[in-house]
Amino acid sequence: PLVTSAEMFKKAYEGGYAIGAFNVNNMEIVQGITEAAAEVRAPIILQASAGARKYAKAVYLRKLVEAAVEDTGLPIVLHLDHGADFEVCKDCIDGGFTSVMIDASSKPFTENIALTKKVVEYAHDHGVVVEAELGALAGVEDDVQVSAEDSHYTRPEEVEEFVSRSGCDSLAIAIGTSHGAYKFKPGTKPQLRFDILEEVSKRLPGFPIVLHGASSVPQNFVKIINDHGGKMPGAIGVPEEQLRQAARMAVCKINIDSDLRLAMTAGIREHFDAHPDHFDPRQYMGDGRNYIKELVKDKIVNVLGSDGKA
Ligand code: G3H
Ligand code: 13P
Ligand code: ZN
Ligand code: NA
To answer: Which domains are delineated in the chain?
Structure first.
């Protein structure tokens, strides 16, 4: 069934692993992710951004995810990624989502609390859970582009007041990740701020933390893309060992979108390069779906540690 993340996060926190939260936009992405999760018995979160809802239409996404539940029998959360205002959150809650994110992280502290609280009240009345964000990631979130100068780490001294006053169920924090496929300058050493995560979790014992911008940008897929007509020089993600460390700690949800895009693109580019005569979408989309499945299985087993938990 579609479930909330409450039980998933509790078990993940106690078990020292994290749930994969994967962004979905179409049928092949949904199938690649959920077929992988089913094979390794992993609970998962499928999330839709505003852009995804606009691209696919919200009703198609919900029906696709419901189809995946029916097909796999897995516990799956349907989550709104980066909800910008109360209305979009309400729309998703009314439309069958089991979890929403209200992202008011660009607003002043008290406005972030007030808006999050408003969403929490409506969501909890409808049995839906709420993720909020404190701190600002660099990179692109939907229409909002946050420059490196405007980004800032989460301030641990603010988290207790934020969570108790807003009533949110999980909290996304900024510890050095960013959205997209170009997270760090080539040649520099990526290092997440585990000291901040540690301090946050000390102040919020048992409370689930969320990591956005957590794609690792697998270099095998970047290479396939670049070897088959693509141009993505210097694409770099979060080192997998640091994601493993976060998953062992208070991080219970790890967001992955860019890696899915890379896998799909690698499969399609490779296919067209090998078969310039093909024009049946099932052939090239099928190869994209296969790479997504491969990617997600590897994530679950080797990074998140959520295999066998469903
Ligand atoms: O947070 C960003 C996600 O990768 C969603 O991206 O807004 O282009 O769908 P999108
Ligand atoms: P990536 O761009 O690192 O995949 O992050 C996705 C994300 O945080 C979606 O909310
Ligand atoms: Zn995000
Ligand atoms: Na964890």
So the answer is: 6-219+230-254+293-304 (3.20.20.70)
